[in-house]
UniProtKB/TrEMBL annotation:
Residues 22-170 form the FAS1 domain. SUPFAM superfamilies: FAS1 domain. The keyword Cell membrane applies. It is found in: Cell membrane. Gene3D superfamilies: FAS1 domain (2.30.180.10). Pfam families: Fasciclin. GO terms for cellular component: plasma membrane; side of membrane. PANTHER family: FASCICLIN-LIKE ARABINOGALACTAN PROTEIN, FASCICLIN-LIKE ARABINOGALACTAN PROTEIN 1. The lineage of its organism: Eukaryota, Viridiplantae, Streptophyta, Embryophyta, Tracheophyta. This is FAS1 domain-containing protein. The keyword Cell membrane applies. It comes from Hevea brasiliensis. InterPro entries: FAS1_dom_sf, FAS1_domain, Plant_FLA. It is a lipid-anchor; GPI-anchor.
Length: 351
């Protein structure tokens, strides 16, 4: 374990021992519906619990529109956690203090840094009083341009916690346009393909969906990151999909069940039954059931898997060509379109 991780854990233990849960960020933000997405992700990344354990902190929140912009890039939960942890400053900045920063500029340590995820010295946020009383924020290494602004104070519990709105997310934009965080480097694609029998049985209901519903439904089976079977086994938890977009979560939970890996939504649990392709950066697995996203199938009763669902899928046509194609189109947008095509193609073969 890294030293920073040890220090962090000690900090957590000591603060947990001495402090009561005096504030609850989830509850504080719940008073502001325009920040519900930000609030939701604080919870699912478990940052909310860390925030509640600490005092003398500032949470820089962004509204749902700003969160949608981030989510449209289909970041993993791990990336979202890194980004949001940069928005928790380990000092108390109420509106008044922000406008009275000594010498007009300061660097604030953040939770991103405290968790040891930050490469080098990254993870400080620069706060600068601009002319005209505007307060700007940005990464420490901002090359002279700070383009995120303090908008307003949302909640102040001096000097335990301050929650402020900022105009957009503070992004650590290193070299390649992504967030410069480790998990974004792998990229790739994972597709979970239902076997033919369950999908055939499901087809009338698929045809019943609206055009937008059909697209979201297909994209729901793709995850914008390469996941080997062993990664899936060791990385249980919530998984965003290509259909994840702002309030439309379209996510599922990956969970081990003995030696099996299952994918779960509210109404369905599907099991991975085979591997069609596993070559970085693409993996395609078969699943024994049509996983139903709760966004499209609200009050579904769980349905048992057909007994013959284990049959080997008849899938041999074009995976290699599709794979080569994918390797040459690594941007998310293109990946997104190609996946939709790939999934449609796979589905066609199965019908
Ligand atoms: C601030 O936190 C301390 C320690 O948890 C707590 O005792 C105190 O009541 C809190 N103050 C407010 C105003 O909530
Ligand atoms: C914080 O508030 C939320 C919503 O009211 C609640 O679900 C959660 O259990 C609370 N957390 C703590 C630590 O009290
Ligand atoms: C403010 O500027 C003065 C003079 O440059 C310097 O001595 C002092 O340390 C600065 N204070 C802070 C808090 O940066
Ligand atoms: C914050 O960024 C501004 C603009 O790049 C810079 O002038 C200032 O020195 C930085 N402040 C600190 C404390 O590094
Ligand atoms: C298709 O939708 C209609 C209208 O909502 C509904 O009555 C019908 O049962 C649906 N068919 C299937 C197969 O789900």
């Amino acid at each position: 374990m890294q030293l920073s991780a040890v220090v962090f854990i000690l900090l957590l233990l000591s603060s947990a021992a001495t402090l009561s849960n005096a504030h609850n960020i989830t509850r504080l933000l719940a008073k502001h519906p325009a920040f519900s997405t930000f609030n939701h992700y604080l919870t699912i990344t478990h940052l909310a619990a860390e925030i509640n354990r600490r005092t003398t902190i500032t949470v820089c929140a962004v509204d749902n529109a700003a969160m949608s912009e981030l989510l449209s890039k289909h970041p993993s939960i791990h990336t979202i956690k890194n980004i949001l942890s940069l928005h928790v400053l380990l000092d108390y900045f109420g509106a008044k203090k922000l406008h009275q920063i000594t010498n007009g500029t300061a660097l604030a340590a953040t939770m991103f840094q405290a968790t040891g995820s930050a490469p080098g010295s990254a993870g400080f946020v620069n706060i600068t009083d601009m002319k005209g009383g505007k307060v700007a924020l940005g990464p420490e290494d901002n090359g002279g341009s700070l383009d995120v602004y303090f908008v307003k104070s949302l909640e102040e519990v001096p000097y335990n916690i301050s929650v402020i709105q900022i105009s957009k997310l503070i992004v650590l934009d290193y070299t390649n346009g992504d967030y410069g965080l480790e998990d974004n480097l792998d990229g790739g694609l994972t597709v979970f393909c239902p076997l033919d029998d369950p999908f055939k049985a499901f087809l009338p209901r698929f045809k019943n969906l609206t055009a937008a519903g059909k697209t979201s439904f297909l994209e729901f089976f793709g995850v914008p990151v390469y996941q080997s079977l062993s990664t899936l086994k060791s990385n249980n938890g919530l998984m965003n999909t290509l259909a994840t977009d702002g309030a439309n979560k379209f996510d599922f939970t990956v969970q081990n069940d003995g030696e099996d890996v299952t994918l779960k939504t509210k109404s369905t649990t599907a099991k991975i039954t085979g591997t069609l392709i596993d070559e970085q950066p693409v993996a395609v697995y078969t699943i024994n059931k049509v996983l139903l996203p709760k966004e499209l199938f609200k009050a579904e009763a769980p349905t048992p898997a057909p007994a013959h669902a284990q049959r080997k899928p008849q899938m041999h046509q074009n995976p290699v060509r599709v794979r080569t194609c994918l390797q040459h189109h690594q941007t998310h947008q293109q990946m997104h379109q190609l996946t939709t095509q790939l999934i449609k193609q796979l589905m066609k073969m199965l019908v």
